[in-house]
Amino acid sequence: MLKKYLIIFFISMVPIIELRGAIPFAVGFNLPTIPSFIVCVIGNMLPVPVIFWFARKVLLWGKDKKYIGKFFTFCLEKGEKGGKKLKEKAGVGIYLALLLFVGIPLPGTGAWTGTLAASFLDLDWKKSAVSVMLGVMLAGVIMCLASLGLFGAIGAILK
Length: 159
Known about the structure:
The chain is mostly helical and 159 residues long. It contains nine helices and no strands. It has one domain. Helix 2 runs antiparallel to helix 3, helix 4 packs across helix 7 and helix 6 runs parallel beside helix 8. The radius of gyration is 17 Å and the shape is globular.
């Protein structure tokens, strides 16, 4: 069982996949929902401080390197684009917008991208971390409900 928890923990740390991919694995492994949710949230949040404080610096350093330049440039552009769009739409409610951006369980809207956007926008570290964590938890709840079939059951009832 420990092996399965380690698998979902590490899956939740992977960019793009994150907790959105780890929770369906946990359900597939028949792991208990609440402990799995906690393990996935911790795994998804673990890289956040590193991303906030160092990722932008590393991406800027590597954007003109031969083998990694294209990928690093893609990451920079994605983070800047997401950050600008978020700031324009949110205005004063930037931290609520960050929470919702991270909380929508779609590829590219997770903790990695949200934290990178917060870093690019020079947002407050503590407020950003709380917003990202709440967003990760929201995405986790949505993914748990979807993985457990609740949305399908509701759809079948409404037909």
